[in-house]
Structures are given as structure tokens and as C-alpha cells.
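pinned: reference chain
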Amino acid sequence: MSKLCLCLVIGLFTSALTVCAAASQTQIAADLFQDQHFAAPSVAIDG
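pinned: its C-alpha cells
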């Protein structure tokens, strides 16, 4: 009986991981990054 419970727990755990991995991903809006609205930096950044 304990092997059956172990198999059920492992099966439920892997199923939960599969559902999390298959969740839909959000799309980034095309107008989100509009670089033309920003000017070049006035001071050089020394990295």
C-alpha cells in the first residue's frame, strides 16, 4: 500500500510541475519600448 501512495504522490507532484511549466506566457506590447522618445545621455557613463 505504501508503494501505491508513493506513486500517487510522485504522480501528483510531476503533474503539478507540468501544469506550472505549461502556463501561458504574456505577450509584450509592441509599443512598450519606444526608444525614439528618449535622447542620448548628456554625460558619458563610465563603466
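why pinned: The chain is about 45% helix and 0% strand. Helices lie at 2-21.
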